[in-house]
């Protein structure tokens, strides 16, 4: 008898939400293919999707709670583990106060329905200010710009790539990353269609990336200089009378102020600093202003740099000045079925910025979280408020946050640490207790976050394909249990407003999802109920349509979504405008404080790069993803290699202010002179981890070089782009 079953779900690994068609027999995955019937992804997948099967069967996956003992690790029961965790947290907080516990949430949180719904009440039960997440090593500047301009941290403009005629893309490489803050499965096909309909793609990047190769024009830029380019583009729009905000002028304030700000940044003024001819800048501005629809889009490379906040702000400004914000083919806003923006706005929580500062360096909090660049010093610096214990949930900051070696040292000295994770890796090896969780195919899936960042309005749900790996528990179940045990101390909580709306205490994730769908914009009483032929959105509808529902292209909706007190767009928020002084001092002035060269000791500028077969730090234990040649190499321009007498294939040593690594050199014309690149997420050669395939392909960690003191001073986001380094010949031994 043939027991083969077919299961449909969205891939949870990156932001693209590709539909998967998975053939299984019993608990064996026979195949994972692109789901051609998924209206959004139309069959697209990448090589990482098939590795979901590897994660499911991985012999290194943790199955039972682990306790660290003097000679290694011992498996313990769940009840023992929960008791030990509560005892550990209480011990630390009773001794040093409640802020002595810290928490770090990693990237897979946002790909996990249970975590998205249950981590907030758990965090509240910890009662600590010391909260951190991957947001501050990623997209924090986007949130700051959205909060200050549109009044809500999650009102993020999404490029309408399927309808635009012109895309100016800075600091993003969607052909490798599959798109970010732009959920667009099959992005290569979408960009080629843009070109096929006569549209143009221009890429600004220090490296000739996969996306730059596809583009109609690629402009090299020195890392961290984009703010100058964006200001010069704005200058040109004003100077050449190219302004055309259209209907946006009716509800936007600040057109005169931005003209004054941009006045000092004529293309001719910035050209030599930028290394981009003034005429190229002027042409770019004219092109953007001349098309019927166009969009400026900037991602990682523009967020994780010293001017991240300014860059994300100015990108929005450019889209407004050219009338492209909230317009078909421009940068648009989603109306997702689970409407996080609407729900949080209703509860009055639109985001907060700068309401408190970190103890040691005074970096600003955003949305109740501190920048993770400050985590190590908050642990290592003695004094009142020092962090003595940590919880990590689905995070690997030792490889993901800047100055990983310092963080290694900090975590090793904690009095108590607990990690919810599927692996014992570079970070979780420091835990006293590791709680093993389900992931991927063992979880039910609805993309709470990425439907809200997609280039079309879509909705898709899938139940878990497999029961939890033997012994593992769902993240949300673990957090709920910990919270219940912690809150015994704080009975008073239940009388508060939040206590009364405590859905998590009474409902499962799918039940909360169902409620949110029913009360959302496509629900029976929602503003967009018409979309579903009279049937209101509910979970059952999604269960009956396993390929996902297409709710149509994005619509102009900004005016009704705005959350600013004035209900108008703030083109020039004061905090951002004030930060332009820093651009002048550090980037514009010929004798500026730009750290380039730092006394000539670290003359090269280091950037990262993403690779299709890698997913941040945690998928290198899949044999099919790491097979083949070593991809963790240093890219360098031939002129820089020649100047140092270095040749392709040899091992080189890369040094920065905070550390050094050794890795093979790859000489290529595809990177600017003066710039070198290493992919992030590698460096699995630390002792005490249990990821055998990854350990056999360790690579070196980019974040052993990235500097925790280098941040965007405004937002506190890590500045990974342009870390000053020097490269010399290594020990001669080539490591694989
Ligand atoms: N230099 C440099 N550094 C970077 C970047 C860069 O471009 N350059 N990129 C940054 C970006 S954009 C991000 S988002 C961060 C990511 O930073 P992190 O989130 O800290 O790192 P990840 O590698 O995503 O680690 C995810 C962890 O979650 C575990 N995990 C996977 N699935 C599950 C699950 O379902 N449940 C639980 N409990 N655990 C799970 C994995 O084993 C791993 O330990 O890295 C940042 N760091
Ligand atoms: N295969 C794969 N896909 C992923 C991930 C992964 O690890 N692997 N991670 C996922 C995550 S968590 C995220 S956040 C997204 C990120 O998705 P993207 O934002 O597309 O990230 P990157 O591919 O790192 O692209 C950043 C680009 O910025 C360039 N850059 C660096 N510094 C500068 C600068 O100063 N100025 C300019 N103009 N450009 C600069 C780099 O050369 C690089 O090409 O990808 C997601 N998708
Ligand atoms: S592109 Fe992203 S979502 Fe699509 S299959 Fe690959 S990892 Fe999964
Ligand atoms: Mo990310």
Task: Describe this structure as you would to a colleague.
This protein has 3 domains: 66-139 and 345-440, Rossmann fold, CATH 3.40.50.740; 141-336 and 563-582, Dimethylsulfoxide Reductase, domain 2 (3-Layer(aba) Sandwich), CATH 3.40.228.10; 595-729, Barwin-like endoglucanases. 32% of the residues lie in helices and 17% in strands. Helix 3 packs parallel to helix 18 and helix 4 packs across helix 13 (308-321). The longest helix is centred in the first third of the chain and has 19 residues, at 78-96. The protein starts with a strand and ends in a 7-residue tail after the last strand. Bound molecules: ligand MGD (2 copies), iron/sulfur cluster and molybdenum atom. One ligand MGD binds next to helix 5 and helix 12. The site of one ligand MGD has 38 residues, from helix 5 and helix 12.
């Amino acid at each position: 008898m043939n027991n083969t079953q077919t299961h449909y779900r969205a891939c949870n690994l990156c932001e693209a939400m590709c539909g998967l068609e998975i053939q299984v027999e019993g608990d064996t995955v026979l195949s994972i293919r692109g789901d051609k019937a998924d209206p959004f992804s139309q069959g697209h997948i990448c090589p990482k999707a098939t590795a979901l099967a590897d994660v499911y069967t991985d012999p290194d996956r943790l199955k039972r709670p682990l306790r660290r003992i003097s000679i290694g690790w011992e498996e313990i029961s769940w009840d023992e583990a929960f008791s030990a965790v509560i005892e550990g947290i209480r011990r630390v907080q009773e001794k040093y106060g409640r802020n002595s516990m810290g928490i770090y949430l990693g990237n897979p949180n946002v790909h996990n329905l249970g975590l998205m719904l249950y981590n907030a009440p758990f965090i509240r039960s910890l009662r600590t200010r010391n909260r951190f997440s991957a947001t501050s090593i990623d997209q924090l500047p986007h949130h700051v710009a959205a909060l200050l301009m549109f009044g809500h941290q999650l009102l993020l403009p999404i490029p309408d790539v399927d309808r635009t005629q012109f895309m100016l893309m800075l600091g993003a490489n969607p052909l490798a990353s599959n798109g970010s803050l732009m959920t667009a499965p099959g992005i290569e096909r979408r960009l080629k269609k843009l070109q096929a309909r006569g549209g143009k793609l221009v890429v600004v990047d220090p490296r000739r990336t996969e996306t730059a190769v596809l583009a109609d024009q690629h402009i090299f830029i020195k890392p961290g200089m984009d703010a100058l380019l964006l200001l010069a583009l704005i200058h040109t729009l004003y100077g050449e009378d190219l302004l055309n905000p259209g209907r946006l002028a009716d509800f936007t304030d600040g057109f005169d102020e931005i003209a004054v700000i941009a006045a000092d940044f004529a293309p001719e003024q910035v050209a030599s600093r930028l290394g981009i001819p003034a005429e190229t800048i002027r042409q770019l501005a004219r092109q953007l202003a001349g098309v019927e629809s166009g969009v400026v889009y900037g991602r990682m490379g523009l967020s994780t740099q010293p001017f991240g906040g300014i860059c994300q702000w100015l990108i929005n400004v450019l889209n407004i000045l050219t009338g492209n914000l909230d317009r078909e083919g421009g940068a648009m806003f989603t109306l997702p079925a689970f409407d996080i923006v609407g729900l949080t706005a209703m509860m009055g929580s639109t985001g907060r910025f700068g309401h408190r500062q970190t103890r040691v360096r005074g970096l600003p909090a955003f949305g109740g979280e501190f920048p993770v660049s400050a985590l190590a010093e908050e642990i290592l610096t003695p004094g009142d408020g020092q962090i003595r214990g940590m919880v990590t949930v689905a995070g690997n900051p030792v490889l993901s946050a800047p100055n990983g070696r310092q963080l290694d040292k900090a975590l090793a000295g904690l009095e108590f640490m607990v990690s919810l994770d599927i692996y014992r890796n570079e970070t979780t090896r420091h835990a006293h207790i590791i709680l093993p969780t389900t992931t991927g195919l063992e979880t039910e899936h609805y993309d709470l976050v990425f439907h809200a960042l997609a280039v079309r309005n879509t909705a898709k749900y899938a139940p878990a394909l497999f029961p939890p790996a033997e012994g593992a528990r769902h993240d949300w179940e673990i957090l709920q249990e910990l919270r219940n045990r912690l809150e015994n101390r704080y009975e008073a909580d239940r009388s508060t407003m939040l206590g009364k709306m405590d859905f998590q205490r009474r409902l499962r994730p799918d039940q909360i999802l169902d409620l949110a769908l029913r009360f959302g914009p496509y629900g029976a009483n929602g503003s967009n109920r018409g979309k579903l032929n009279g049937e209101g959105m509910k979970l059952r509808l999604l269960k009956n349509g396993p390929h996902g529902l297409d709710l149509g292209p994005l619509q102009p909706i900004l005016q009704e979504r705005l959350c600013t007190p004035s209900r108008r767009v703030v083109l020039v928020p004061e905090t951002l405008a004030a930060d332009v002084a820093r651009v002048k001092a550090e980037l514009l002035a010929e004798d500026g404080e730009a750290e380039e060269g730092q006394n000539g000791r670290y003359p090269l500028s280091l950037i990262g790069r993403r690779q299709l077969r890698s997913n941040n730090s945690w998928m290198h234990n899949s044999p099919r993803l790491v097979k083949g040649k070593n991809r963790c190499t240093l890219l360098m321009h031939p002129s820089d290699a020649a100047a140092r007498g270095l040749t392709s294939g040899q091992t080189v040593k890369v040094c920065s202010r905070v550390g050094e690594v050794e890795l093979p050199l790859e000489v290529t014309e595809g990177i600017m002179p003066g710039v070198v690149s290493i992919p992030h997420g590698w460096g699995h050669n630390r002792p005490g981890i249990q990821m055998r395939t990854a350990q056999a392909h360790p690579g070196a960690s980019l974040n052993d070089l990235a500097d925790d003191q280098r941040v965007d001073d405004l937002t506190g986001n890590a500045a990974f782009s342009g870390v000053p380094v020097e490269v010399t010949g290594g020990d001669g031994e080539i490591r694989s």
